[in-house]
């Protein structure tokens, strides 16, 4: 099953506290389908915590609606069923199983493992489609543990596609990837975001410049700025807080970062 109409993620007043420490506050965020949204900000800005709150890993207050469903306060398995999928900074695939088996497991989480492993004929259509989308057709029978780093991330994205995730929240998907893998991932995210809602947490400024439609900048738990890449990169508040330099005296490092010669 594929998405038939664009869906937006609409977050208002999101707040997350850890033992009295407010990690995320007053976050309003709307992400339409068809747009590749990047979420950036210095370390500790609250990016991952936002994703954690939307995927049920931490408790958040406020509202977060997707496809008519309130996401906050729902258990993880119900969020998966509601079409919410995420990846982590480290790919979590079943290394001993083949690419196809990983996708098959993701496609039928409710089936018993023995049934899953016996099914070699009649590969479900959504699995074939995901293999094609993430470009792993030729590696379908390869154990996931033998895949290159980038390929594991693509497999993980494929696993979200077979679950029919329509809101994908991806945490630093290109970290540790080669230039070629980054470009392939960027194109993959573009394809996916045409009819799904995709939010990417990323530090890599070059990747951001090449692929982001819109950028949301977080700082100290709140949203600091939002707009196109050029707009955000030239915003003095962003230069000051995200790049870590005082406005009137940019350091060599900050200047290098602002012009994209450094990635973090
Ligand atoms: N489980 C937790 N318990 C207590 N504090 C936490 C927890 N998770 C995150 N924090 C704190 O919340 C703040 C936001 O962290 P978060 O990981 O969301 O930032 P981030 O923007 O994703 O940073 P990075 O780019 O380094 O991954 C940080 O100060 C962090 O130390």
Automatic annotation (TrEMBL):
SMART domains: AAA. GO terms for molecular function: ATP binding; ATP hydrolysis activity. It comes from Galbitalea soli. Residues 9-245 form the ABC transporter domain. Pfam families: ABC_tran (PF00005), BCA_ABC_TP_C (PF12399). Signal peptide: none annotated. SUPFAM superfamilies: P-loop containing nucleoside triphosphate hydrolases. This is Urea ABC transporter ATP-binding protein UrtD. One of its GO terms (cellular component) is plasma membrane. Keywords: ATP-binding, Nucleotide-binding, Transport.
């Amino acid at each position: 099953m594929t998405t038939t109409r664009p869906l937006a993620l609409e977050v208002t007043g999101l707040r997350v506290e850890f033992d009295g420490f407010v990690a995320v506050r007053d976050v309003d965020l709307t992400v339409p389908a068809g747009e590749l949204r990047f979420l950036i900000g210095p370390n500790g800005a609250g990016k991952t915590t936002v994703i954690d709150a939307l995927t049920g890993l931490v408790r958040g207050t406020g509202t977060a609606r997707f496809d008519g469903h309130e996401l906050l306060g729902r258990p993880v398995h119900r969020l998966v069923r509601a079409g919410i999928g995420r990846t982590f900074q480290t790919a979590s695939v079943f290394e001993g199983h083949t690419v196809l088996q990983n996708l098959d497991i993701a496609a039928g989480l409710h089936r018993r493992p023995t049934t899953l492993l016996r099914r070699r004929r009649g590969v479900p259509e959504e699995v074939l489609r995901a293999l094609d989308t993430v470009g792993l057709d030729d590696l379908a029978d390869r154990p996931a543990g033998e895949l290159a780093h980038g390929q594991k991330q693509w497999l993980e994205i494929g696993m979200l596609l077979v679950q029919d995730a329509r809101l994908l929240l991806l945490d630093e998907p290109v970290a540790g990837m080669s230039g070629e893998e980054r470009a392939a991932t960027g194109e993959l995210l573009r394809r996916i975001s045409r009819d799904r809602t995709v939010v990417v947490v990323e530090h890599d400024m070059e990747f951001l410049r090449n692929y982001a439609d819109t950028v949301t900048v977080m700082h100290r738990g709140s949203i600091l700025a939002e707009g196109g890449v050029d707009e955000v990169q030239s915003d003095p508040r962003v230069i000051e807080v995200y790049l870590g330099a005082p406005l009137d005296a940019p350091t060599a490092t900050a200047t290098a970062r602002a012009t994209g010669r450094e990635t973090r």
